[in-house]
Design brief:
34% of the residues lie in helices and 21% in strands. The chain is of the alpha+beta class. The protein has 3 domains: 148 residues, 3-Layer(bba) Sandwich (FAD/NAD(P)-binding domain); 172 residues, D-Amino Acid Oxidase, subunit A, domain 2 (D-Amino Acid Oxidase, Chain A, domain 2), CATH 3.30.9.10; 81 residues, no CATH class. The strands form 3 sheets. Strands 1, 2, 7, 8, 9, 10, 17 and 18 form an 8-stranded mixed sheet that branches. It binds flavin-adenine dinucleotide (FAD). The site of flavin-adenine dinucleotide (FAD) has 38 residues, from helix 1 and strand 16.
């Protein structure tokens, strides 16, 4: 009997599992697919307060998100990279320079004036900073701080901390039904087995609904789709993240974010129905997104043919009561609902605020457990996530910073980059980059299979290493190697390699509308 079963291994479920495990609860996490397979690998990858939400008067949400951002700088410094964002205003834009300065003054105040405050730039300076911007109609800009992360890696790192504190994780194991029983809640897993728990938290993001929560789960989530496109940095050579105001009345903004040798642009915000797992980028969405950015960067290479890859995700927003609102207007605040079985559903929220959401829901779980807590066990500890690091981190010294191999690995693995680099140097085949202009090294492939719970090709090439998002062949050059490693690891047969590759091809086509170019099987391969 587990103290807590968490259904869903996105950032919300990972955060809950980590918090609960650190308090001394026994925790099992189940996910129908891979860690971060849902929205948590499909976000805009920002750790941010959300400047835009100030316009909606959501001061509390922004305050909380900025506080969590500050905590994440400490907790995962290798994974959360502060950046100066440039937010320009053009003639006809909804937010002019004056409004932006007001908004950012409030942003700084809500951030308790930590770090570098915002700064204004007139049109001239703005163009010096970002020569790619259109000159015509430019009125000025503000510069302010937010941060960029790797969403899937952050989720995995949170879950790894949960595991370090004793949590068990089962991926590719869906919860089919929850049943209230005298001792707690039975979680019926697909395939027929049952796991028993005193308490259950359902953190299934955009999949939240009636199946696991019963009537209280019906229509609690409003699904909104967002799309991102990845281009070569030389086609969209921005020096820093740039915020672009969508034309018209919609309060939508999108981001153009430099990402090493790539730049990504996104996101859209459109209502979505249907299975979040089938969510993919449509041709029309690509065209519209490029068009919106081209308005302010007319000389960038924003052509459909320049798109390297794409991703699409579904926001699990808390459905507002009363009149249906545009999803762009709906609050990003979370809500906790109690399902028919007694399970707690954690709905909505943001990547940035996962820790605070987890604290709230685990407080509720612990309150409930207290009544039935066995006398022979130490009582649950208080929440410890507010000021504890995700990975104890000895920063890079100057010598290491100058070491290309360690520098490539650092942003994903933090201190573990040192061991990976040593391993790569011991086996020279593992040291090279997979693609020359991307920082991903061959040693990471086997590491994902051996130590990071990867079971299918996309677990490795889409979420452990974002090669599917950054390489034109969508990781195709190493997909066969990865499939072989996975099949070898489970003692499988050669035919399974082709099944794995077929599965990868399908997933990539569904999400990106692009076909990975996978190398042919070597004819001499004897298996
Ligand atoms: C386009 C877009 C951009 C965004 N940008 C940002 C941003 O820049 N910054 C930010 O802070 N936030 C951002 N967000 C919001 C943030 O990404 C989400 O709030 C967050 O990732 C949701 O995480 P989650 O764990 O609740 O859901 P998910 O990550 O979707 O996780 C749910 C998990 O539940 C599993 N599951 C579903 N059903 C079952 C079942 N029956 N049994 C077992 N497991 C199941 C799924 O496989 C999945 O892994 C963005 C969202 C989108 C869509």
């Amino acid at each position: 009997m587990w103290d807590l079963i968490v259904v869903g291994a996105g950032i919300s479920g990972a955060g809950v599992a980590r918090d609960a495990a650190r308090r001394g609860l026994t925790v099992l996490v189940v996910d129908a697919a891979d860690v971060a397979h849902g929205t948590s690998s499909r976000s805009s990858r920002l750790i941010h307060g959300g400047v835009r939400y100030l316009e909606q008067g959501q001061v509390g949400l922004v305050y909380e998100a900025l506080r969590e951002r500050a905590r994440l700088y400490q907790a995962a410094e290798h994974l959360v990279e502060p950046a100066r964002f440039l937010f320009p205003a053009y003639r006809g834009d909804r937010l002019g320079p004056w409004m932006l300065r007001m908004g950012l003054t409030l942003y700084d105040a809500l951030n308790l004036f930590r770090g570098e405050g915002h700064d204004s730039a007139d049109a001239q300076r703005c163009l010096e900073l970002e020569p790619l911007l259109a000159e015509e109609g430019l009125r000025g800009a503000v510069l302010y701080e937010d941060a960029v992360t790797d969403d899937a890696r952050l989720t995995l790192t949170v879950l790894q901390d949960a595991r370090r504190h004793g949590a068990d994780v089962l991926t590719y194991t869906a919860a089919a039904q929850l049943e209230r029983v005298p001792a707690g809640i039975d979680v019926h897993l697909e395939g027929g087995s049952v796991a028993h728990a005193r308490e259950v938290v359902v953190a299934t993001g955009p999949w939240t609904g009636r199946a696991l929560l019963g009537a209280p789960g019906t229509d609690v989530v409003l699904k909104s789709k967002g799309v991102h496109l990845v281009l070569k940095a030389e086609d969209v050579p921005v020096q820093r993240p740039v915020v672009v105001q969508a034309p018209g009345d919609a309060r939508r903004i999108l981001f153009v974010v430099p990402w090493g040798s790539r730049t990504y642009v996104g996101t859209t915000d459109t209502p979505y129905e249907g299975d979040p797992a089938s969510c993919g980028v449509l041709e029309q969405e690509e065209i519209e997104l490029l068009e919106t950015v081209r308005r302010v960067m007319p000389h960038a290479g924003l052509e459909p043919g320049n798109i390297i890859s794409t991703w699409a995700g579904v926001r699990p927003l808390v459905r507002p009561e009363g009149a249906a609102e545009e999803s762009v207007e709906v609050s990003r605040k979370h809500r906790i609902v109690e399902g028919d079985s007694g399970a707690l559903g954690l709905v909505g929220g943001k990547l940035t605020t996962f820790r605070a959401m987890a604290e709230e829901v685990v407080d509720a779980v612990v309150d409930r457990l207290r009544a039935q807590w066995p006398e022979d066990r130490p009582t649950p500890r208080a929440c410890s996530t507010a000021d504890s690091v995700l990975v104890p981190c000895e920063p890079l010294n100057d010598e290491e910073r100058a070491d290309g191999l360690i520098a490539d690995l650092w942003g994903r693995y933090g201190p573990a980059a040192r061991q990976l680099a040593a391993q790569a140097r011991d086996t020279p085949d593992l040291e090279p980059r997979i693609i020359d202009d991307l920082p991903y090294r061959r040693v990471e492939l086997q590491h994902a299979v051996d130590y990071e719970g990867a079971q299918h090709v996309s677990d490795v090439l889409r979420r452990r290493i974002p090669l599917a998002l950054t390489s034109r062949d969508l990781g195709g050059s190493v997909a066969r190697d990865v499939a072989t490693m996975l099949v070898d690891a489970r003692g499988g047969r050669g035919v399974e390699i082709e099944d794995e590759l077929e599965r990868y091809r399908d997933e990539m086509v569904r999400e990106t509308r692009r076909v990975p170019r996978i190398g042919a099987a070597p004819s001499s391969r004897a298996r």
